[in-house]
Amino acid sequence: MDLKNKMVEISANLHDLHSALNMLVKPADEGSKGELHDILQLNITDAMKKLGIKNLNSLQSLLDIKCSVTGNTSVRWKFVCVTLHILLSMKDCLKELSSDANNKDTTKAPPDILSVNQQKTIRTCLQFVVSMGMLPSLIPGVGISLAARCTSAHNLKEEDLLVLEKYERLAAVTRGLLACCEHPSLRSLIVAHHLGDLMAALSQICFAPLKKPVSGQQSDTLSDDEFVMTQELWNLFQQDRTHFRNCFVSFIWQVYQPFVIRELLLLHGAAGLKRVHTCSHTSPPSWLKRTCIQLLVHCLMRPRGVSALIRAICDPNHDTGKDWSKLETVVGLVTTVHTANPEQYYKNICSQILEMLSAEEKTYSHIQILVAVKCIEVIYKREPKLISQHFLGVLMDPLYRCGKPEHPRENSKLEKEDSDTIVSEEYLSRSIVNMHRVFVECCTVGSALSPSLFSPVSSILFQLYFKIYKSPSFLVSKVEDLLIKFLSNLDGDMLNCTYRNFLFGDSMNGVQLMDHNRVAFSFGSTGGACVVLQRREGSFPRTLQEIECKGDCLLHLISTRDNSGKVTTDLFMILLQSLCGNSVNAELCEPNEVSASKEVGISGGERHYVTIKLLSLLSNSVFIHERINNDPSYLIDYFLYILERDYKYLCNSTEAVDGEDPATEDLMMVIMTVAMALSNNGLESKPVEWEIFDRIVEPLKLIQDSVRNKELKLLAGEVYKTIVTRNVVTGSTVRENFTHTESKDKGKGKTRGAQKTKTRKSERTGRNQEPNESSDTSRKYFKELNPYKEAILCACDSSIPVHGHGILQLTKLITSENEDAIANKNIILKIFQDDLKYEDSYIYLLAINGLAAMSNMFPDVVIKLLIQEYLEYKPKNDAENLTDIRLKVGEVLVRVSKTLDCNSPCISTMLDAFLKGAKDPQPLIRASSLSNLGEICKNIGFRVQSVIYEILVCIKSIIQSDIVDVCSAAILVLTLLLQGLGPDTFAVMGDELRDVYRYLKNHYERSEYDSLKLHAQLALEEINKISKEFICPKQKLEKRLFILDPPSG
User: Fold this and answer.
1) What is the tens place of the pLDDT at every residue in 845-899?
2) What stretches of 336-474 show up as alpha helix (H) in DSSP?
3) What are phi and psi of 610, to 5 degrees?
4) Torsional class of 143: left (φ above 0), alpha (ψ -120 to 50), beta (otherwise)
5) 3-state DSSP of 444-462
């Protein structure tokens, strides 16, 4: 009962104190008129009467904070003193309530929590205390003045106070507020609304420069109004400084660090916070700037200081494209050194950034990771060695351990009981994820953090990929991104060395090799990988089978991740050069003999075999075909190499093995590729560089005269005539020969070869026959072909109607999933690509539709080509309508987008293309781009969230400045966007929906054009519909029935 009565008594006292505070801030009655002085005096009298206070100087609470009142004290200071007394008394009551309630039931709310009404009253009183007791005593430029906060501050007359009186008042109020901060309820109110004011007062008391004390003789010469610093005052100020500095440091370390950093930045640049035009512009004093910088450095050096700075400046839901200047400000603050030991500072920053990268994804937002990586990039430009040691070395430490198991750095996460585990799964996985964040996710074009920085561990990274690339491990995609970015950054010589290092284990300067005799990768229990110790006697055996598997692994990496084709083409050309440059025996290697090599060493024949296998697999790539067409010099070198290697064998071979001879097939394939390169260049607008092909004129003549294979002789003769006569005399059978050889079956080589020879002879004789006989021969020949062969033959015809028919048939075959067409999809794609350069618009549009039909097979290639044609199409002749063709290409793009997965990265590429098209000089193209943009947004729904800001900015800009038709299209985008988002509109658009609604409402009410009003009305109806469904969702009339028992949970 005693405890209960005590709590009741304390609650009653707290209620009386709150009533007194209400009296202090009570406004004047409506009927009465008086100045602020009279109103404050009346309220002070009522409050003191309520609390039974007769003499303020006798109050212990005011004596503790050294707050006194004299007879000449103004009403404002009396008001501040009474308010501080009440707040300190409330703090004591709340402390007693909290201490007495510790042993009670914790399910109820604590009794020391302030009500909403009490919090409101205390906030108002704190504003009066700060405005009348603290701000008038601050030096100009320290903190934000009252004139910059309130427009009516000029009506409040300044008090004429001495310097010592200002100091005593400022110190007393500061002590009072710090004492109130001892209780959480009052501290939360002070920190939320007056943290900057309190820090400004503490900075002035602790760090403002003081006058030196003067002697008695010097003080006699000074005037009476001038402040005199005596030795006693000097000692008093020094004692106060020591006390307040301790309070300052302990206070700011207890407060949420982003709040502290934000207020320090405001104090450092308070001159820029001029909110009222009438207030004077006063720069912060230099001592305050130095103090803020020192405190900021201390905050940054504390644990998670960099994260606190990012949170202080950047919004948690910050949009990178919305305000890039904030990110640059953060990077500049972090990377600027203000300490005497830059190395120690950078080392601390690197450790914090590593901690941020290693934390879980929910702990730090993407914007914080991005800023952290940018900081590392800037520091690396200044101190590359320091970053390599303290950041990159720690980041890639698990991979370094694979080459040096005795690496001195310890892994704290390593399981002690597993002595065979060198690098744990968690440690290795975290390293790979962090490397992916630094070098892939947050790395921009031209970044100083190039992939070459992890070249020392590139070989070990490839060994890890070789272990996991066929598994469902979550590390596969990240390792693929790292490797493909590393390979894309290499030039020719380095790529060649890297290829030999990856496959054959050749050493490279600066690249660490994996110690296969001591360590090996192993799969972990959570989908990652770890490094385990293995004890192997002797050297590590390298078999041909393992090298072939590594080659397959490298091809898998390139085929799945090389979207640009750079690595594919560079590797192909390097392999071609190395094959042609090395001296290899002219005798053909039998596959059985080569594959039987299982010994430790890697012979030159094994390297040669693997190189040829990779070349044959890479040659099917579309990127290789484009490269050969643009630069056939590499093909000529390979042709000369093949001829030098197999010439003697071909001259001595008989016709009996024509269809199955590997040397004949190699040379025939090369000659047909040369023929296709000549014919493709002929179809294109650029002229053929005949000087390149002149190098093979004599070898072709030699093959035609010496080789016994009739088909090879005939093909070489036709190419020879084409080169010598500069395409004046051409062999029309070149394309047909290519088509026949491409579809030739292995078991019917001799029969097909004889049929082709007969066909060529009939064609030669048919040129001199009558037209009827020629057409009869053609009809007979076409009857022997399947639909795919017939379409290919027509597509290679020079006549526009026949050529167009072939393109149309190929498109139909792809759409109907014809087996032959699907098997030769690379060839068909190449034909469609070549026809994009055709002069006739009919063929061009057919090729566009053909590419659209192949979008599911080659999405990256097809969409890249279509976007390029949509944005950069140029008319082939004066008769073409440029706008109509671009509009049709845009329609095809929209049709393609509907066949793709909504999560495909190609969708974002198309959105970027249409946003770029919205800036086109032609209004019709702008309107079409906006319409297409709306269709895609409608299809993908909430997945448009990543680019919603860019879309809305584009639409707002067009509505404000463009013509009526384009503005209507922009509003149509909003309608389609809202239809696609549906119930997700509020989650995706957020605060932007309010601005969109205002724009639409404004155009609907004030626009002079009916079309704009109609589109705005449709968009507003969509917003109303979504709002109604969100506020009043449809009730589902359903009842759940259970057969036996309801499910648990």
Assistant:
1) 788 788 778 877 777 777 777 787 777 776 655 555 677 777 877 888 888 887 7
2) 342-358, 366-382, 384-387, 393-395, 397-403, 425-436, 458-468
3) -65, -40
4) left
5) CCCCCCCHHHHHHHHHHHH
